[in-house]
Amino acid sequence: MLKIAIIGGGAAGCFAAANIPALPGREVVLFEKTGKLLQKVKVSGGGRCNVTHSYTGLPELLQAYPRGIALLRKTMHRFTPLHTQRWFENEGVVLKEEPDGRMFPTTDTSQTIIDTLLNCMTRNRTQVFLHHALTDMKLLPDNTFELHFSNGVVYHAHKVLIATGGYSKPDQYNIFTGLGHKFSLPVPSLFTFNMPNEAITALPGLSASEAMVKVLGTKLSVTGAVLITHWGMSGPAILKLSAMAARTLAECNYQFQIGVQWSPLTNRGAVFQQLRQEQGKQAASRTTTAQALATSLPKVRHFPRLPFGRPAGCAAKSPSGSSYPRCIYCKRQNHL
After folding, report:
1. CATH code of domain 1-38+110-186
2. For the chain, what are the domain ranges?
3. pLDDT of amino acid 284
4. Could you report the per-residue pLDDT of 8-52, keeping only the tens digit for each?
5. Which pLDDT belongs to residue 282?
6. What percent of the chain has pLDDT over 70?
7. Which end of the chain is more exposed for a tag (fewer CB within 10 A), N or C?
8. pLDDT (mean) for 151-169
9. Could you write out the three-class secondary structure of the chain?
10. φ/ψ (deg, to 5) at 37
């Protein structure tokens, strides 16, 4: 009897089990430390489950993983987002593509994805054991694995698939390093930027839909939506940049500067022209300039309150007395 053990009942573990067909002389057992499978899938995508992303080609896809291109190239070539789409379609799940490229089930509920995976596992006769946290794993002389769990259960397997996700503490990897595996030390990723004592935190709620954010002193930059919060900056662009620069930021102990270009327009004259056009539109309705640039730039009337006005070289006066930023590429000191 060939025994296959899968450690972890999340998306990776359950998808693997769903793709190992039942055969005579094969036993597939999945161990999950909690009391429920696919808990993160349940809440992903706001409860709708963003299954995958639209696929336009491998080179473009790999650019979304700047820290793992070499490692992922072979894997992604073997199983692309297009393969994922076709797999779910073959199981009767219809997917839809949203404007940003994310793909969801047309039912708009993650339960559709959960039910599909669990049905496939049942069809494959996968055995599931909940409340089984792996505590130790040994390679025996006969090249089989002895798995020890927190509840005292011991299981022997010929093959083991580790699908536990990452660990926050380095010593949690000891189970696997003892078998000869090597790991890079984990560092935080996907975090917001905390900026205590920065004047920009006085403008929580303002956002720019197409800002460019760069970690100064590096080549790392991201363009996307930025949200000013009461503690600093957040939004998709900030989160993506934190992931791209995860190790760089850890190495400097999270003391770094960023540059923010709030407008997608890079020509100074074009920026001023767009600002004046917008102000003219707003003047007709007797309001202040509610949006400096229709697509992205935060309110002009707030710029005089921000510290990058004078140092960056400000400020031309408009007919109404509003100050325009002469340079909107500012520096920010980040503290975590």
Report:
1. 3.50.50.60
2. 1-38+110-186, 50-108, 188-336
3. 64
4. 999 999 999 999 999 999 999 999 999 999 999 999 999 999 999
5. 64
6. 83
7. N
8. 93
9. CEEEEEECCCHHHHHHHHCCCCCCCEEEEEECCCCCCCHHHHHHHHHCCCCEECCCCHHHHHCCCCCCHHHHHHHHHHCCHHHHHHHHHHCCCCEEECCCCEEEECCCCCHHHHHHHHHHHHHCCCEEECCCCEEEEEECCCCCEEEEECCCCEEEECEEEECCCCCCCHHHHHHHHCCCCCCCCCCCCCCCEECCCCHHHHCCCCEEEEEEEEECCCCCEEEEEEEECCCEEECHHHHHHHHHCHHHHHHCCCCEEEEEECCCCCCHHHHHHHHHHHHHHHHCCCCCCCCCCCCCCCCHHHHHHCCCHHHHCCCEECCCCCEECCCCEEEEEECC
10. -90, 155
The model's pTM is: 0.71
